[in-house]
Design goal:
The protein is α/β, with parallel strands linked by helices. It contains 16 helices and 13 strands.
Length: 437
């Protein structure tokens, strides 16, 4: 039997004197990249900003920073991992105005963040790299800057993203008019150097730290660059009582005595999606053999996938995919015993709510830690974590899964998931839990 809660809102509505030498997107179209290249944007922008008086009077010293822009218009997981940086900025610059620029789809997640003064949005519309699309994107960014950014006279603009920027974030930071613009160099990875050639020119300070570490640590290295101090490495989600009440309403149809498992079936990258039929088999086993209750959690674009899982699942599944806001999803995850599923934004929300995680990875244990699907870079932070992954990459992949569809992840079996859950069942669900034949 399948239970569907009532729908709520959408799940997500240089040549610089101070340089510090310290994904599957298409490469930009040649013509479009020449017309809106970093070099062209810089050449025109500097003349415009000098006319507007926006390239003087700023300072990069700790005591003189009065306004900060953080550009984080990439994924849900990326935004979740930025919380400690925002907290460090507020602690280090208590009187500064801090603006956070995100995608419209992720605004709900940070609307209540106490460390920022305002949340702005920029809609990239699509990843289209055609000349017309790139020019339109640039014009929208200029309109946003003229209407909402230039009046702030930002002292600092920050782009925390370490990996290649396919989100126009570097351009947004430059067009903000900020005196000091900080980001990671195009040279930190070969992938980034290929796709972001010339982007360093848009910054006044670039960090060239090529070391492999968790993305949260890369985020916090920004505060060191500014002379501030990281005050916490703990993830946070900022909820209001209505979010908790909605989550309670969704879960009210479940048995209060039985453990609840949150299952994340989707991912922005098809390479990271475990097959729907295997999720259905694992969920059937959880309900029949283990006695757990299963809640599917995800975004609206994952609703067709959720319907497939539900149709194939034997047993009761609560389908909440596409029926919560991000904050409501976080509240729901916080009420579950653990999360099992793909490496996706939902997984990071579960970790931020303190839930243990079973992560199904598309990268084998022998793959490079620097790869964009690496759990060392993007694994759940700060919680007990079990990684289920292929033993070795399939032909065509070496340092990580490079295919545009599910490929290496197909080697992960349902039996691997069962074994992992059995090993943690008493710890996560209580000593009375027994596996039934």
């Amino acid at each position: 039997m399948t239970t569907n809660p009532q729908p709520a809102d959408s799940y997500a509505s240089v040549s610089n004197s101070k340089r510090v030498d310290a994904f599957d997107a298409p490469r930009p179209a040649a013509v479009g990249s020449r017309i809106v290249s970093p070099e062209t944007t810089y050449w025109l922008g500097e003349r415009l900003f000098r006319l507007l008086g926006m390239r003087s009077g700023g300072s990069e010293t700790l005591s003189a920073i009065n306004s900060i822009l953080v550009v984080r218009n990439d994924g849900v997981g990326d935004l979740v991992l930025t919380g400690p940086l925002l907290k460090a900025l507020r602690s280090s610059f208590p009187d500064a105005w801090i603006s956070l620029l995100v995608r419209p789809a992720t605004r709900n997640l940070v609307e209540l963040c106490p460390y920022v003064d305002e949340v702005l949005t920029f809609d990239r519309k699509s990843s289209d790299k055609s000349t017309l699309a790139v020019v339109r994107r640039l014009l929208r960014a200029i309109r946003l800057s003229a209407s909402s950014l230039w009046r702030r006279r930002f002292d600092v603009a920050i782009v925390p993203r370490w990996e290649a920027d396919h989100f126009f974030a570097s351009y947004l930071a430059y067009l903000s008019g900020a005196t000091c613009r900080i980001g990671y160099s195009e040279r930190v990875t070969a992938h980034k150097q290929r796709y972001n050639s010339g982007y360093d020119r848009l910054f006044t300070r670039v960090l060239c730290d090529k070391s492999i570490k968790h993305e949260l640590e890369h985020n916090l290295d920004i505060i060191d660059c500014l002379g501030g101090t990281a005050v916490s490495r703990q993830l946070e989600v900022w909820l209001e009582e209505d979010d908790n009440r909605y989550a309670e309403g969704i879960l009210s149809c479940l048995e209060p005595e039985s453990p609840v498992v949150a299952v994340g079936i989707g991912s922005a990258s098809p390479a990271r999606r475990w097959p729907a039929e295997r999720f259905a088999e694992a969920c059937s086993w959880l309900t029949h053999a283990v006695g757990c209750q299963v809640v599917l959690v995800g975004s609206p674009r994952e609703m067709p996938l959720a319907e497939q899982v539900v149709a194939m699942c034997r047993g009761r599944v609560l389908n909440a995919v596409g029926r919560t806001t991000l904050r409501q999803a976080a509240a729901l995850l916080g009420s579950c015993n653990f999360y099992m599923g793909n490496n996706t934004g939902t997984m990071h929300l579960a970790a931020a709510m303190g839930r243990p995680v079973i992560e199904i990875s598309c990268n084998a244990s022998t793959c490079s830690a620097s790869h964009r699907h690496s759990s060392e870079r993007f694994g759940p932070w700060g919680v007990e974590h079990c990684l289920v992954q292929p033993r070795r990459p399939l032909p065509g992949c070496s340092d990580g899964c490079h295919k545009p569809e599910a490929h290496c992840i197909l080697q992960v079996t349902v039996d691997q998931i069962k074994t992992t859950i059995e090993s943690r069942l008493e710890t996560w669900c209580g000593p009375s839990m027994q596996i039934r034949p």
